[in-house]
Amino acid sequence: xxxxxxxxxTGRARWVRVAGLSASSAESARAAGEQYAVPLTFSSAAELxxxxxxxxxxxxxxxxxxxxxxxxxxxxxxxVFSEWPLGADLAQAEELAxxxxxxxxxxxxxxxxxxxxxxxxxx
Length: 123
Hints:
There is one protein chain. It contains four helices and five strands, in the order E-H-E-H-E-H-E-H-E. It is an alpha/beta fold. The strands form two sheets. It has a three-stranded parallel sheet, with helices on one face. Strands 1-2 form a two-stranded parallel sheet. The termini are far apart.
């Protein structure tokens, strides 16, 4: 979690409840959970993705970690919102996009990635 916290956890999005978070270790996940009052903590992205309490996975880390964090969420049929860019290179982005379309949560729509946390200006 570090110093970065998605807006969903700041109280601005009242219809969103932050159900859980994952970190690189169980200890750091527990500490972040206590700091941000998040009830469920996981020591891996795969563990978080398997949780039935989690509907949406938000990825807010540096790009080199995107593949290892997004892949398990998509494989579990979760919707994913990731910071831009999706992957470290075109091959990773294509892999994740293909997986999203193959693993749609309800079989009719892609599981994700559904968005990108980046502002883009056409000029």
